[in-house]
Amino acid sequence: MKRIISLFIMIAAFSTAVFADEGMWMVPSVNKKTQELCKYVVAIDFMGTGSLVSGNGLVITNHHVAYGDVFALGDKEHNYLEDGFWARSLEEEIPIPGRSIQFLRETIDVTDEVNELINSGTVKPGVMMMRKLGGIMEQRYQDKTGLTAILSAAWRNEKFYISLYQEYNDIRLVGAPPAQVGAFGGDVDNWEWPQHKGDFALLRIYTAPDGSPAKYAPENVPLKSDKYLKISLKGYREGSKTTIIGFPGSTDRYASSAKTDYMTSVQLPITTGIRGSQMDIIKKWMDRDPEVRRKYSNYFFGLSNAQELYLGELQCYKRFKVADEKRKQEEELDAWLDADPARREKWGDPVGLLRDRYAKIAGPQKNANYFRECIIRGTQLEPVATRTLMLANRYGDDKVEGVRRSSARNFEQTDLRVERELFRSCLETFYENVDEGLLGPFQKELKERYGQNYDAMCAHLWDGSWISDPAQIAEYLDPATDMRIFLVSQDDDPLVRFFGDARIVAYNEAIQKAQGKPDIAELTRNYTHAMYAMQLDKKRNPYPDANSTMRINYGRVTGLNPRDAVHCDYSSTVAGLLDKHDPDNYDFCIPAGMLEELKKAPASMKLNFITNNDSTGGNSGSPVLNSRGEIIGLLFDGNKESLASEMLFTPDYNRSVNVDIRYVVWILREYAKFDRILKEMGL
In the prediction, which pLDDT does 385 show? Predict the structure, then answer.
């Protein structure tokens, strides 16, 4: 069986790369031989990236990409998240419900086709334009090719592309280390350097017996492929060339200074402040009760990852003076527009208009942000209350069992003690920060009755609700219960009334009223188109923002000087991991069996390394390739100093954090004793 594309092709593909460090380049932008590599890099439902590493459908990705699946597949008897999972045979590989993997087959520029639909009036500009365009174009290309088609826009609708994917729906878990290995260091080490994570997991793609994509069936077989990416155990050194291929989620490199100012003064301070308080509450309970840890591990993981990201962005936007850099770009844009009256007539004053609109919406957006963070996502039981309200007022009988099942999942993954404390915290934050005019009638009544006595207000709402009563919860979830009768008996439930008293639509209407027309979305498109035109005119070869389409980036292995007089090496080692080991701290406690093996390993064995590749969320699991096109690592994180890169790439500080593939192989060989998979990968 052919193990990999010809070595000659690999060398040619990488030696001809012309882009450096900054930029997430679309597949058509690079040479054909590099595009060949892209065939073996997959999207994992566009939330992460993986690589095909065997001729039998084996895919390697990050542990944190598979984290939710590993969590969901476990139960009280089989805690795969804590204990790890290693399928000793094909028969032991576990199907993952709802998981799919996508192979990109082709990317097509369809700008002319889309503009024809717009110019003919078939699709009109507006909020729903992309959805309507997507419906037409995706169906058109799906009918032509039989593949899954996804429409995407670049440069705020300056260009349009169709990506064609072969999708596989029978995906199974093959192996994953314990969370204390895969996520070693927890949220403390998240976005930091150095790190010491074994952040990988193994999945397998199954097909129908004839090789075609199929939903799960016992008779399905592993995907057969005569080509895939090879793993290299030769390592790297400082300065080694690296390439990453993946599906980065989103960037906003064309953001205006006005938006940057808004993010640093309004949105990010609110989001990070509230989520930080939520994390403190949840972690306290997780450390106190193992059952709470089991229930909240997945939720806390997502909360922590987002919190570290937003906090890092806030700090980096200020530290690297991103708004000032944007203002410099805007000065250049204004000068370019003024140099040609036709340009100024076409694009007007994009910079000034955006500054005006962001100033007008600051107050209404503040209210909306507090509402979202405190009411919509302040507790995990808000969806139960909302679904209950919808069932009572709008849903038909056909929705009853769906609502019951959804609510059951909420209750199964929560602890009422934790949720009560979260609710109490969010209750005070909400009332202390939202304009009273936006409160619903019942919310105002509570404010008048209890004032700032939030303990009493919380007790009235929480203790008087069926949602906080285990006996009534059991009755609600019992299939024998007539839901309509139950809801009538709970018609005046205070917690349900509180959550349903005012909805986000009122807050959004206040924002729209404040900004007027043209709104920020329209002005941002105009601003981006002007910036794009200027870049083309100055022959700067602009790249589009990330949008979950496949991208390629080039870089090098290199160290980091994060602050004055501080230098970090380009790799971390076993010695550093053992130094961090703390048996009394869950996040830094190495599992006993792993610890025994690590003590036998060379202290200098490399675990993680950093490169200056340009990456973002969605690149998790991306293969880090050497100059021969072989996998030397898996990208799993960025450093905190790189978090300005959502809006501005900082070449001296931007780093991608990767797990060394040799550490992955070491875990498989020495800790997991996973010889069947090592043999399958040719190792």
Answer: 87
Q: Copy the structure tokens of residue 242.
A: 């690296």
Per DSSP, the residues of 221-283 read EEPP-S--PPB--S---TT-EEEEEE------TT--HHHHHHIIIIIHHHHHHHHHHHHHHHH
Please name which of 41, 32, 59, 54 lies closest in space to residue 248, comparing C-alpha atoms.
41
Do 577 and 184 form a contact (C-beta atoms < 8 A)? yes
Round to whole Å and give the CA distance between 369 and 604: 47
- CA Rg, the chain, in Å? 26
Calpha distance 458→423 (Å, rounded): 8
Answer yes or no: are the C-beta atoms of 570 and 609 closer than 8 Å.
Answer: yes
Position of tokens 């997507």?
A: 134
What's the pLDDT score for residue 490?
Answer: 65
Residue with tokens 């093996």: 597
What is the per-residue pLDDT for 338? 97
**Alpha carbon separation from 301 to 277, 307, 574, 634 (Å, rounded):** 15, 10, 25, 20
Measured CA distances, 272 to 269, 304, 312, 379, 498 (Å): 5, 10, 10, 16, 24
β-strands 656-660, 606-611 pairing: antiparallel
- Which of 372, 350, 353, 360 has the alpha carbon at shortest distance from 511? 360
User: Is 0.90 surpassed by the pTM of this model?
Assistant: no
What six digits make up the tokens of 676? Answer: 């069947």
Both tokens assigned to 135: 């419906």
Q: In the prediction, which pLDDT does 125 show? A: 83
CA distance 485 to 468: 19
- Residue 555 in 3-state DSSP? strand
Residues listed for the chain: 683
Q: Tokens 């805690």: give the residue.
A: 79
In this model, does residue 20 exceed pLDDT 50?
A: no
pLDDT reading at 523 higher than 70: yes
In one letter, which amino acid is 412? E
What single DSSP character describes residue 666?
H
Which of 354, 359, 410, 347 has the alpha carbon at shortest distance from 383? 410
The tens digit of pLDDT for each residue in 262-278 reads 999 999 999 999 999 99
**Alpha helices (H) along 289-321:** 290-319
Higher pLDDT, 456 or 14: 456
Tokens encoding 423: 């609710």
CA–CA separation, 368 and 266 (whole Å): 11
- In this predicted structure, what is the pLDDT of residue 3? 36
pLDDT of residue 538: 95
